[in-house]
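Async update (no meeting this week)

Hi team, since we skipped the sync, here's where things stand on the single-chain job. The sequence we agreed to prioritize is pasted below, unchanged from the tracker. I ran it this morning and attached the output directly underneath so nobody has to dig for it. Comments welcome in thread, and please keep replies under the output.
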Amino acid sequence: MKSLMLVAPYQLEWIEQQDRILNPNEVMVETIASAISIGSELPQYAGTARSGRAVQYPKMTGYENVGRVVEIGSHVENVRVGQRVVAFYGYRTKAIVDCQSVIPVDEDISDKVALLTILSCDVAKGIRKLKPYPEESVLVTGCGTIGLLACYVLSAYGLRNISAVDAVEARQDLALALGARVATSPTEVKNQDTLYDLGIECSSFQDAFALLQTKMKLNGKIAILSDGNREPLVLLPDFHAKELTLFGSSDGWNYAKHAEWFLIVSDLLANPLRKSLM
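Output:
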């Protein structure tokens, strides 16, 4: 087994780790594909990530993976050898994980869409915190993968008044395909008088977060799904004047339970999200 470790800014090394005997409830997974988080991992790679603690090297890299089970412990019953699964153990060629932490994936689901099981659950957790009603209006800032998933999950909640903002026109088109009623540029949103009940920050940029605050109604609610690694996200006077509520959100609420829904509907996501991931 090899792990991709960040040993210093801009320096990655594959470090070999010795295999061991599996515990009864563990499985060994061989990696097929992994996802790269531009917002989280590139600042870590460059040594510029914002953190409350000093970085210690070597540092493990990566998040979620698609892999194939190559060995199972004596008590494992939920997966079998040869089965394709989603798991999260970073950039490793193989990993030993608890059997309850892997999510089986049908062979007809692409690796790229399967990887979105984890991110879509993270998005769903933030949206669940907002407790949105179908009649409420919402503004999503940033139409990268997180923002696109936010549009889709909001639509699944029954919201129809979803607006998305991104400077890239192609991303605006993808947002429309995934549930947004309106998708436009930051400049156009600034020049509009429309105010929103809810806001979802997915861009990691302060300009977008500031725009979101100015476009909220009194007592509006904002969920921050971006991780703040890129630059500080600062509260404006609007936050206090409008008595806004802010929710932070990170890991998902229940990955296995969420996957029961997401992997069924993922065919609907495949074409638009494949374009966004290319």
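Quick observations from my side:
The first strand starts at residue 2 and ends at 8.
Helices lie at 38-46, 111-130, 145-156, 169-177, 186-190, 206-214, 237-241, 255-277.
Reply here if anything looks off.
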